[in-house]
Amino acid sequence: MIKFFLMVNKQGQTRLSRYYEHVEIHKRTMLEAEVIKNCLSRSKDQCSFIEYKDFKLVYRQYAALFVVVGINETENEMAVYELIHNFVEVLDKYFSRVVSETLNLLQSIYSLSKL
Amino acid sequence: MRKERMPAPIRLRELIRTIRTARTQAEEREMIQKECAAIRSSFREEDNTYRCRNVAKLLYMHMLGYPAHFGQLECLKLIASQKFTDKRIGYLGAMLLLDERQDVHLLMTNCIKNDLNHSTQYVQGLALCTLGCMGSSEMCRDLAGEVEKLLKTSNSYLRKKAALCAVHVIRKVPELMEMFLPATKNLLNEKNHGVLHTSVVLLTEMCERSPDMLAHFRKLVPQLVRILKNLIMSGYSPEHDVSGISDPFLQVRILRLLRILGRNDDDSSEAMNDILAQVATNTETSKNVGNAILYETVLTIMDIKSESGLRVLAINILGRFLLNNDKNIRYVALTSLLKTVQTDHNAVQRHRSTIVDCLKDLDVSIKRRAMELSFALVNGNNVRGMMKELLYFLDSCEPEFKADCASGIFLAAEKYAPSKRWHIDTIMRVLTTAGSYVRDDAVPNLIQLITNSVEMHAYTVQRLYKAILGDYSQQPLVQVASWCIGEYGDLLVSGQCEEEEPIQVTEDEVLDILESVLISNMSASVTRGYALTAIMKLSTRFTCTVNRIKKVVSIYGSSIDVELQQRAVEYNALFKKYDHMRPALLERMPVMEKATTNGPTEIVQTNGETEPAVLETKPPPTGLQPTSQANDLLDLLGGNDITPVIPTAPTSKPASAGGELLDLLGDLNLTGSPTPAPAPQISQPPFLLDGLSSQPLFNDIAAGIPSITAYSKNGLKIDFTFERSNTNPSVTVITIQASNSTELDMTDFVFQAAVPKTFQLQLLSPSSSVIPAFNSGTITQVIKVLNPQKPSEIGFQDWEKTDLRA
């Protein structure tokens, strides 16, 4: 099951976040900070799956933007990896250019809900 | 009075732009607070036109982590509006801001109900989305009927959303599952992939929750197989294509459902065999997508009752994954192999060399997986080779792995060691490379292991000595080494080693190193305890340096560390007053019984307690531990308020026992008073002589001899009651009752009595040998004493152990 879906830039600012489980607001910011710290410290040729606390993080980097998905152990990690790419492609087609600046927030959230 | 009109609220996009220009966190907070205030006043004005814009901005701020609860009611108002744009934002806000914890969410129920029956499918879709996202159980119960109706509609856009909503309803209210059953009949007949996908999710959820449903849906297996086949065989379809594979997400979902259906069921597994083999061989592996599908296939094959050919195919796929350059794939392969190594051990063994190579990978996740898998693969045949690799890994890995790796190596070495020498060598290697990461509970295990390999003592102590000569900062290493040097120091000095070149060590050098351990700042308190006891033990094994030892021991009598001080003081007493007992006490440890180790070590057995018997006329039960071990075990157990024990000698001759006891009695102040004389006070906390009661007993001719409390110390109380035997007036019958007011049971309570030669003593068997804690019971024992002559004295002695496991 997917626990959350984050898009964070390299400076650690959240561009988009969607939680599929209830998490307190202040815990969300802490979680996001820790998650992005984990992902930023990885090098290019390292594995995209990180074990974090009791679930796994699948992350993918697109230029200055990190897309991170938190999943539990029932999910196929590689399928989620593909899903991230699929999502980014959808956004790309819809907005014709995936750049963090012009990311239209609401549309992204909608697309997420429909995925 | 003119109401001042506020300027039109800014758009969301502008807000985002403004916030992004903020350079510091404080600046951002300020901007957001200003905007929040503007939004709040706008809400108060009940402005319909701009409400949607304001809520959108509020949602953005909520996402950044700022509180936005005042927008909840506004969301509800938006949902109730007729405009689609309003509804859209309203529902989105509801999904993000509301959940069942808030009371207002129930107000939405009516709105959603109306919208579920709306004429526009998009509005219906919105309502379904929201319900499927945050519906509480009450809402779900109310609206389940509507959802079910929509599940049967012909509109595929709505059908797929309804299916997902149904999944959520089932999760919240499992009892409603039956309601959706009739609707599922036709779900798989759809052409639309969206509907197919969500239907499969719905079926998966139902099967996972209820075994009845599972049995019911097994008949769908042929249909699922057919769908999967079509997906694979069909040509290029632009709608569903992802990197050359047709709808991989649906394929993965179907495979997962097949896994659930085929588990533990032969027929279904039989039906799936072909298609699984087909997927496994036909899927293109050049792209990640193909590998994702293969991964899911492998998991399915492993989980169902597949035939062995298929399983071998699966493991080969995993082996191929391992050789792939892509890290993700290797990680995934290692994870799956770990799951299957229990069942298909031999097949996985074939890939052992690749797995061992992965230990050298740079990636942390991969290294961890490879390490776990390597430990699972160690067996009798490959233990030497694997250990070499694992030791090398231990050397070079990150600190977070070292503890686990060390424990794993110990376990594997214990199970599969080809020879004792190899075993000890391996342990030494671990201690020297990762000494400080070894878990605390490993130390007693190692000590026991060393004790049990009797022929290796000289070799072991020599190696340990050499190891700590250079560096005594690694605590577990130093602890084991000190213990060994204490025990086998004589072997060390005499240069008896057969296995390797014996080194020349003098007694002074050995004492030097032990003293430096004591002094060093790096030594933990436990380690110091080990060292001090080791020095003490050497007093019987070394010949020329006894004075030096005495000096060291007396210095520590005033140490600040209470533990150390107590030991030193006791050892001092041993030197001064009880020197004749010292050799017996500090004798070589017997071979210990193996405890069942499982994770955190179960402390081997009971430890000696406060009142160990110096002299035992009975053979000692197993489990007499040396002081250091007992003390450290006590420490490990989190301390006890029981004073530490001194090592007890395994056996001693009864003849001398009596003599020594009487000697001791001679020291004591034997008065004629029947009042209990407490155990003679020696300056240090009593240990040895607690067991002795100096209570003289009068065979008084007077009829009633008052009962006395012979002994009351450390929670143990022993009462004597006397009476004359009816049959023979020279016989006095003494009934002793022992009770225990501490928190721990005292086991193996043994009462002994020694009498002068003119007496005859008969000890009847006690009622039990365990005194339960908290005065909840007593042990009774009857003693008959025949004194044909004048009154005299008898000494009594008791001895018991406390079971620390209590």
Characterize this entry briefly:
Chain B: InterPro entries: Adaptor_Complx_Large_Subunit, AP1_complex_gsu, ARM-like, ARM-type_fold, Clathrin/coatomer_adapt-like_N, Clathrin_a/b/g-adaptin_app_Ig, Clathrin_app_Ig-like_sf, GAE_dom. The complex is a heterodimer of chains A (115) and B (806). By secondary structure, chain A is an alpha+beta fold.
Q: Can you walk through the features of this model?
A:
The complex is a heterodimer of chains A (115) and B (806). Chain A is of the alpha+beta class and 115 residues long. Chain A is built from 3 helices and 5 strands. Chain A has helices at residues 25-40, 77-95, 105-114; strands spanning 2-9, 14-19, 49-52, 55-62, 65-71. In chain A, strands 2-1-5-4-3 form a 5-stranded antiparallel β-sheet, sandwiched between helices. The radius of gyration of chain A is 13 Å and the shape is globular. The two termini of chain A are 13 Å apart. Residues 98-103 of chain A have low confidence and may be disordered. Chain B has 806 residues and is α+β, with helices and mostly antiparallel strands. Helices cover 55% and strands 8% of the residues of chain B. Chain B is elongated, with a radius of gyration of 40 Å. Chains A and B meet through strand 2, helix 1, strand 3, helix 2 and helix 3 of A and helix 1, helix 3, helix 5, helix 13 and helix 15 of B. Chain A: Its main location: membrane. Chain A: This is AP complex subunit sigma. Chain A: It is found in: Endomembrane system. Chain A: Pfam families: Clat_adaptor_s. Chain A: Residues 1-106 form the AP complex mu/sigma subunit domain.
